[in-house]
Amino acid sequence: MDLPLPLLLSTLAVSAIVCYVLFFRAGKARRRAPLPPGPRGWPVLGNLPQLGGKTHQTLHVMTKVYGPLLRLRFGSSDVVVAGSAAVAEQFLRIHDAKFSNRPPNSGGEHMAYNYQDVVFGPYGPRWRAMRKVCAVNLFSARALDDLRAVREREAALMVRSLVEASAPRGAPAVPLGKAVNVCTTNALSRAAVGRRVFAAGSEVAKEFKEIVLEVMQVGGVLNVGDFVPALRWLDPQGVVAKMKKLHRRYDDMMNAIIGERRAGVKPAGEAGKDLLGLLLAMMQEEQPLAGGEEDKITDTDIKALTLNLFVAGTDTTSTIAEWAVAELIRNPDILKQAQEELDAVVGRGRLVSESDLPRLTFFNAVIKETFRLHPSTPLSLPRMASQECEVAGYRIPKGAQLLVNVWGIARDPALWPDPLEYRPARFLPGGSHADLDVKGSHFGLIPFGAGRRICAGLSWGLRMVTVTAATLVHAFDWELPAGQTPDKLNMEEAFTLLLQRAEPLMVHPVPRLLPSAYEIA
Ligand code: HEM
User: Fold this and answer.
1) Half-sphere exposure (CA, 13 Å, Cβ side) for 353?
2) Separation of 458 CA from ligand 1 center, angstroms?
3) Which end of the chain is more exposed for a tag (fewer CB within 10 A), N or C?
4) 381 CB less than 6 Å from ligand 1?
5) Is the ipTM of this complex over 0.95?
6) What CATH number has the domain bearing residue 225?
């Protein structure tokens, strides 16, 4: 049968278009990068049941099986895990702009004033302005120096409390982490709102302490409802109910503190500047937060920011100092070397001052090595892909959550010789990592994260950890409770999101300085 020519031509043209489209599509599908590899999960819950309590350890093991870029499912959420320095650098340097938001979660919604804070707030001008307010008023070199006396005084009070607790003959061993936590929390709360969380006496102080401790505790819980929408309304762990209740108490407490300050009342003995006073002055002068009329600073901003400081800046700091002392007790030769340096720089007639820190070369290496083996947030804080992208040859779906295994990366034998050995000398001149710091540019050691959302309180955290740990190591020799020996000290990690010790460090501190060094003016 002969087809008329126009019909034949149009049939050929349509066939050619269909073939082209099919071929092009197939080519495109062929070129699309694969998803990263990872273990199969369970229905509904995905890989959540496989994580165990020490998620960073499980993910480190999975990295050895599946490679340095893993894909998992937490309930209905896609999760990718960076398990090597090279992959972390891809995410946090090359593709950082696409990962500069955090995934939605119940803490951001119910505790942090519906994401009106710095930790969970969306990346953008308001977040940038809030970070700037903190950077200028709390964390700049000048602000840090202005608040130096606050940190040093709290460190001296910590020393005093340890001397008193261990003075009576036969006194029981003291939990060191608790003493350090009182110090770091009080220093930060004085800088933030001009009052101590741990203060003897008043009912207000008791309520303040209870709320802040609960806020820190709830902030560390992984809520399954965040990942499994079907379980959200059930709130199986009761986390959301707890958060809502606590939020109301926190809000009432902060309203009272702000109200008092507006009325000109400041707690006794707190004459210096604090963040609350500076923010209220900005409000009074009607200074915009981010440049626009609608960006005026509000009471909610102040409350959300203060909450961030308490949750992000207290336990993170004290746990590292506790781990540092534990490592030194376990390694007496390194402890001796650290004390010899401290005696040479500081002498035995006074406590450590922050102005001594730049001359403590060995001790600064001790701190870096402690951050390497015991980073406070072993999986950093999650980020989220704001668009689909390709990283290290794999496709990362839009909305995927990113976890960076900071803990695992710092134990990678390809980067760190004898990674499980506590060896500060690797950071000394001539050592394998002499020029490396912890400030986010060396991806093998990123305890504070990296990129746009790197820890906002890095400068405070690093200074506080160093001065607290140096003060302890200089002021005391350390004895363990009867029957314990340094080589058998338990260095297990607890089952929490924050890297705490499974067993608190119990010690007998033995003063080693001249008695006058322990007197407080
Ligand atoms: C040793 C102490 C500390 C460690 C190890 C630490 C670690 C971290 C890490 C890993 C992040 C996430 C970074 C990222 O996403 O790349 C972070 C975020 C943050 N940290 Fe810290 N932190 C410490 C101390 C502090 C202190 C003292 C403060 C405040 C007083 C603070 C405030 C914050 C805030 C506000 C964020 C959120 C930043 C943002 O999302 O823009 N941190 N921290």
Assistant:
1) 11
2) 6
3) N
4) yes
5) yes
6) 1.10.630.10
